[in-house]
User: What shape does this take?
Amino acid sequence: MIATGTDGFIFLLMLKLPYIGLFSVLLVAGLGVPLPEDIPLLAAGWLVHKGHANLYAMIAVGMVGVLTGDMMLFSMGRKYGEHITEHRLLRRVASPALLARAERLFAQHGAKIIFVARFMPGLRSVLFLTAGIFRVRRLKFFLIDGSAALASVPLLIWLGAKFGAHIERVAGDVRSAQLIAVGCLLTALALWGAWEYRQHRRRKRLAAQEEVVLLHPVGNSGDKTARTADAAPRQPEAVAGGSARSGR
Assistant: This one.
């Protein structure tokens, strides 16, 4: 058992109150408090390994705790979103143009952002709150977040139950895997952002070129009209000159 720091406190709490402890820690972590979500889930599996809890009951409590915390944070974003976006502190770091850009991203890629956010400690709470601020539909958020949780919560509890004798090593490996995954996701997001920026610049350049092409024929037409007007008076003179030569 991990017996030091925050992780040790979580293990001791859940040793005394297995189900209530798991639900409480996951709920608090879901509300944005900087607590590791993987540790209580691994601790739940460790309790199953020790015979202090039932595997399926722990998975059920884990799912309920995770989704309750996520939905509460999401609902706070929906309810207080206007006040949050208008707050002067947020205005200092996020311009209206940046907020509008973020809203468009959620409108276009909200499902992907929510799903990926579930696996990103540190950014998860911010992105779930933002999903609420930008009025993502409740059912959509619940289904996507639930699908992501279903892919991680049972797995972490099962790992704790299967390898409970080496729980500290398992916890370290899970942390390392999370860091690698977050690094890969951030790299992918950076590459995607660079590609989007390049496409945006390209679209602007093409739009500017099209505008020039549309304006250019107007200028040519005017020149042609002017040349026609200049040439028109010369025709009678030429006819008159020809008549005079004929008279001679």
Summary: The mean pLDDT is 82.
